[in-house]
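Researcher: We are triaging several targets before committing to wet-lab work. For this one, the compound of interest is NAP. I'm pasting the protein sequence and the ligand SMILES. What I need is the predicted three-dimensional arrangement of the protein with the ligand bound, expressed as structure tokens, so it can go straight into our comparison scripts without reformatting.
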Amino acid sequence: MDSIGSTFQPDASGTPPKQGPFPPNLKLNDGNEIPLLAYGLGTARGKWGDAAQAPLDDEIIELTKMAIQVGYRHLDGAEVYNNEEELGAAIEASKIPREQLFVTTKISATEKKSTQEAFSLSLKKLGLDYVDLYLLHGPWFADSEAELQQRWADLEAIKASGRAKSIGVSNFLQEHIETLLKTAKVPPAINQIEFHPYLQHGGLLDFLRKNNIAVSCYAPLTPLTNAKGGPVDAVWKQLAEKYGTSESEIGLRWCVDQGLAVITTSSKKERLERYISELPLIKLTPQEVADISELGNQKHFRTFWNDKFGADDRR
Ligand SMILES: NC(=O)c1ccc[n+]([C@@H]2O[C@H](COP(=O)([O-])OP(=O)(O)OC[C@H]3O[C@@H](n4cnc5c(N)ncnc54)[C@H](OP(=O)(O)O)[C@@H]3O)[C@@H](O)[C@H]2O)c1
């Protein structure tokens, strides 16, 4: 078992962290650090449809304040979640010094627009003068390689200005990253992807590790939420019993124990507290991680961006 006093720091190589204070930071390829566990402002916390235009939503502010209060420092936002103002209000009300927080936002995956204007508007809504991570939410806005490369160059300029400490991508396949790397001066620090046992993306992880690009996993608990009744149910339950915890922690730990950052969300204070207090106490063995991966590969399920992928596209 790993020593709590170890100074080992995880990076994009995929080596998992040791046990110890949680969440540990992962070192990105630009030297910055990202907390391995994040509280997400999308999915159940976003303002969708008619609600997008509604005034400040107090419930989102209160839940985000609560997440910060129980110890979440990595906050995952996006322009399309339509709640950057709520995220900013929660940050301000939390009174946590700005440098102790890690704030992410993202530019639309699908819309052609001025990157500088979109970024300035995000900062304004957040009430911040910089973000820790600015992501391309997806590659689908671009009709050509040049368009994708140009938006990446825009992010590089934003990073150079100091208004985003790190820059990265989300929902990118290997081919999209290869396109960026042809012209990039700064490689993406991270690729934020849907990742859980039912969507392991074939060779993408290996490719990212070889290129020193970290991964953050969204929708990690899909086997418990949108794809119940699948082949990992039994092993998650059995491991939850073994470690005296719940299946949710097993799902999150399966990502962490592959050296990946993980983004979840919850409306429940007890659940968020439990992740912080129990995740450091458990560590899946390499065999347990492999068993879950193998069972997970028996089923394919994608919750997000289904209109961009074929029904059996596992990349
Ligand atoms: N880049 C992208 O394209 C993209 C796409 C999607 C999401 N994201 C980011 O990732 C974040 C997390 O995504 P996600 O919400 O899909 O993450 P998730 O961690 O897979 O799911 C979180 C949900 O799981 C529920 N849950 C936890 N344990 C459970 C259990 N034992 N049984 C049943 N339900 C359980 C929680 O409900 P309770 O509220 O009841 O606890 C919560 O609503 C988003 O907020 C967003 O920031 C990014």
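Researcher: Any quick observations?
Model: Residues 213 and 296 are 24 Å apart (CA to CA).
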